[in-house]
Write a structure and sequence with these properties.
The complex is a heterodimer.
Chain A: H1 2-11, H2 36-55, H3 58-73, H4 82-105, H5 125-138, H6 142-153, H7 158-165, H8 169-190
Helix pairs in contact in A: 2-3, 2-4, 3-4, 6-7, 6-8, 7-8
Chain B: H1 5-14, H2 26-40, H3 50-66, H4 79-95, E1 101-102, E2 119-120, E3 125-132, E4 141-145, E5 150-156, E6 159-164, E7 175-177, E8 182-184, E9 191-193, E10 198-201, E11 212-213, E12 215-218, E13 221-227
Parallel strand pairs in B: 2-11
Antiparallel strand pairs in B: 1-10, 3-13, 4-5, 5-6, 6-11, 7-8, 8-9, 9-10, 12-13
Helix pairs in contact in B: 1-2
The chains are: A mainly alpha, B alpha+beta.
Chain lengths: 192, 231
Amino acid sequence: MTARDNEVRRLRPGTVRTPRSRGGLQPVTDAAYPDWDAVYRDNVTWVYRLMYGKVGNQPDAEDLTAEVFMTALRPMRVSATVPEVRKYLRMTARTVLAAYWADRMGRQITTIDVDVPEADDPAPETGHAHDTVGRLLAHLPDNYRRILELRFLQSFSIREAAGQMGVSVANAKVLQYRALRMAAQSGQEGTR
Amino acid sequence: MSRRIVPRFVEGLLRGQPTARARPDDAEAQEMRTAIELRAARLGSDSPREEFVTDLHRRLAGAMAEHPPASGRAPIGTRRQVVIGTGLAAASAATGLVVGRVLPRSDEQRPPTATADGVLEPNTGSWHTVGAGADLSDGHAMTFDLGSVRGFVHRTGSGLRAVSGVCTHQGCSLWLDAAAQQLRCPCHSTSFSLDGATLTHQLPIAPPPLPHLQVRENNGAIEVFAPTEEA
């Protein structure tokens, strides 16, 4: 669905305001969506991906995506251009995510930056997730990296992961939390 | 007491459950952030479910018909409304309930067996080591990625079996749900057995089973027969 939409967008380049090579997409700056249905279909995937990247679980990502569209569609001007609509959706997503974390954790765990330069890819951070994690894991000792890969990237249960690594379940748990702590510390130094 | 915050959060995250309320400190918040980053990087995990996209579309159509876009600023939809709407979907997801259709087991509808024509045999191939035999015990599975081909190897009582890790419907990357012993497609909730058979799907036509790859154990190494790398 989205892939096809992207295809269409590539074939109708329109006016290129800020040419950026990533993703091969070009913004259609003067185009507007015909109706809310088109807004939804063209943007639901990136909004969901953005939210999934910020909360890491499907039920919450779905709730938050639903909330973004429920909130944003009604007051939206039909005449708004495609980049304006995307920016508005991204701002709405930021607000929705902030309210979610305030409610769940009393603080912001992850945030959505809206001051990104106008990009072809409305959710640029999703493409970088793998690189970031690769860098994060690269700094860890082997057994730390392995437990995080097994548990987070490959969805092994703690028992399965322990079996793979030849350690007890209790050891695997300890390993996992130490590894996460070390990754968190190195991530903090590494990024901002 | 507060030291349980991160483990509890991580457990829920790895089970795909909605985040529960907690009050983390700075260090804990950073660990949560890292855990989310790691989880979200799982291959193919970030595509919305087709039924979610359809269902939300239906709900939005209802909301838009009830309250057409006004010239003034409409009241902002509350989270409560939204949560009620998705309650069922969220609950199903959290408990791992599969609402997809389970393939009939009757004789006339038996899925095609994937042995005769379902073996991936490249024109020019060679054996590639994907792991150590000792790392893969009976009943376990592991993933491999050789660039040209990626998939999953698992060991059964009768030996090693390897299948492609790409969904036969539209090519999304499957992920290993080790607890359920299944390969799942993030795109349309299709699931395959570790041996490649189509188990559940929500599509009009059952996607074909996953192609097998030749796999062997050689001097303690697990090797998969895959295309020879391009120069």
